[in-house]
Each structure stands twice: as structure tokens, then as C-alpha cells.
């Protein structure tokens, strides 16, 4: 992988690209500190939207909008507070690049709900300076209309976003959507978990959960399945424990699935979960999508293994 070039006086390498990092629902900027540090060490200038955990309570203001109750809510003004954080971070990043690396392009790197929120930002604020969009476990697609027992958790926002800027909407951007295959869900009333996505991944990266049976693995599969159903209409799909694979990809984007990858930084702290997208060993498998560099051989094999495992599981 190419590294940042040395500055004129040799004191500090100049960043070769900027990265704007958008937090996911319930997360704060500090949760992404280790990931940001890893990217900075690779010669990238990183700015994280400075969302705090209590900020997410601002979404409750949308309850006063009749469209919330009708399921026809639009992102603005409901999430203006978040978009203002994004714009503040974008302006700080652009000022830094102007000083340290004039003309360097920017990748918008999004996690979870930050994916569709980033799409709203690009639609309304424009794409100036941005040439890549990468999402990590983002629920991009609304649940299917009329699905029994399913309630759109965005109350219509995802429908609006997918109508206003469907798929890889901006032709000047390269889109990459990444989803972990941590566990295949099962119905709450089902007998247990399902088979792993690939036997090779179980030893190298935590693998998909897990073999048929009960216990903790079965409970994880049922819990995940209940969440997947609310997002994509079906519990029996693969996903990163929070976001199901069918909802995580955009039409027209490069779609990448990673075995054994959990949804959030919490996975690193609890032994029954596993590494998340930003874990060092996982980052190696997809970081080239931030920069557009050629994929390392190991990363290509990881993605190929996931694809082969998915095919064999069907």
C-alpha cells in the first residue's frame, strides 16, 4: 500500500487523502478514536463528526411531526443536528487538507446509520472534494412495504433517501458497501442457529456463528434474526448481528462481505462477540477501499472466501 509522501521540509509526511468518519446510531466520536488513529498512521487525514451519545436523544423531537406517525418522515429537519456535525467536520477536514495537502481527495467513511445520513449530506450539501463513499454495516434499504410485524424504524426517512438518491447516486463517486457476516439469524421460535458461512473463517477471524444447536450461539442467532426482520423483513439472512446483509448494500456499489465481523466496537470488549470493522485484523481486509489502492492478496482471499461460503450455504 502506498504511503504518504514526505513534506517539503521532511518534518512530517503530508496526508495523501482525507477521511470524513460518520458515527453510527448510539455511538459517539470517541468510539472511533482507535480506527481514526490507525488510518492516520497510514498517511490519511481523519476527521470524525463530533457526535456525543446524548445527542441521539434529539431524534425524539421528530415525535412532534405528524409525518413520524404516518411513517412519511423526511430527514430534514429531523436529523439536521447530525448533518450540522457532519458539515462542521467536513469544513475542518478541508481546512486541514488545504494546509497540509492541497487538492487531496476525501473519502466519506460511514458506520451504521451514518451511511444513510451521509447520503443525505451529499445530496443536500454536494460532493465537492469527495470522490469515494464507503459504508460499514449501514442499513441503506427500507424494510419491504407491507411486511407483517415490521415497523420502519426510520419512520419513512429511508424511503425518502432511496427515492431521492437511489443506489450509487453520484456518478462522480466510487461507492463501496461493506457488511459483516457475523451470524445468520433464525426466527425467535426457531430451533437454533445455522451453519457457519465458511469453515476457514472460524479459525482465522472468529467466523460466522455458528453450528446448529442451542446455548449462547442459538440465542445470538435468534436475537439477531429478530433485528434483521425489522430491517429487511426476514430473520433468516446473514448480517453483522445488527444490520442484515440484504439491507447493507447499494445497487451500483462495489459490495463486499466480510466473514466473522461484528457490527460495532462493542464486539472487541465482549468475548462472545468478536472483532468489528475497525479492528486491526479486519481493517487490513478492506482499508484499500478507502484509498482506491490495489487490494492486498490477503484481502482478496478474505472476500473470495466469504463469497464461496455464501454460495455453499445456499
Automatic annotation (TrEMBL):
Region (Disordered): 192-211
Low complexity composition bias: residue spans: 192-204
Origin superkingdom: Eukaryota
Name of the protein: GPI inositol-deacylase
Source organism of this protein record: Chlamydomonas schloesseri
Amino acid at each position: 500500500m502506498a504511503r504518504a509522501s514526505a513534506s517539503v521540509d521532511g518534518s512530517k509526511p503530508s496526508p495523501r487523502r482525507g477521511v470524513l468518519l460518520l458515527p453510527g446510531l448510539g455511538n459517539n466520536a470517541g468510539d472511533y478514536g482507535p480506527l481514526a488513529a490507525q488510518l492516520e498512521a497510514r498517511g490519511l487525514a481523519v476527521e470524525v463528526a463530533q457526535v456525543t451519545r446524548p445527542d441521539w436523544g434529539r431524534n425524539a423531537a421528530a415525535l412532534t411531526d405528524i409525518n413520524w406517525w404516518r411513517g412519511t418522515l423526511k430527514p430534514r429537519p429531523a436529523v439536521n443536528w447530525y448533518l450540522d456535525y457532519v458539515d462542521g467536520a467536513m469544513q475542518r477536514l478541508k481546512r486541514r487538507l488545504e494546509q497540509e495537502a492541497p487538492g487531496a481527495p476525501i473519502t466519506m467513511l460511514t458506520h451504521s446509520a451514518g451511511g444513510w445520513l451521509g447520503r443525505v449530506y451529499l445530496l443536500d450539501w454536494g460532493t465537492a472534494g469527495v470522490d469515494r463513499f464507503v459504508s460499514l454495516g449501514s442499513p441503506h434499504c427500507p424494510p419491504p412495504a407491507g411486511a407483517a410485524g415490521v415497523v420502519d424504524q426510520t419512520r419513512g426517512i429511508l424511503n425518502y433517501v432511496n427515492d431521492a438518491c437511489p443506489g450509487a447516486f453520484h456518478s462522480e463517486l466510487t461507492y463501496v458497501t461493506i457488511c459483516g457476516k457475523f451470524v445468520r439469524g433464525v426466527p425467535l421460535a426457531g430451533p437454533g442457529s445455522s451453519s457457519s458461512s465458511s469453515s476457514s473463517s472460524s479459525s482465522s477471524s472468529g467466523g460466522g456463528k455458528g453450528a446448529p444447536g442451542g446455548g449462547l450461539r442459538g440465542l445470538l442467532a435468534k436475537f439477531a434474526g429478530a433485528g434483521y426482520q425489522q430491517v429487511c423483513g426476514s430473520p433468516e439472512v446473514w448480517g453483522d448481528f445488527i444490520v442484515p446483509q440484504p439491507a447493507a448494500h447499494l445497487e451500483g456499489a462495489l459490495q463486499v462481505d466480510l466473514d466473522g465481523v461484528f457490527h460495532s466496537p462493542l464486539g472487541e470488549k465482549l468475548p462472545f462477540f468478536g472483532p468489528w470493522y475497525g479492528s486491526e485484523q479486519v481493517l487490513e481486509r478492506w482499508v484499500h477501499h478507502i484509498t482506491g489502492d490495489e487490494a492486498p492478496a490477503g484481502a482478496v482471499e478474505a472476500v473470495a472466501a466469504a463469497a464461496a461460503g455464501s454460495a455453499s450455504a445456499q
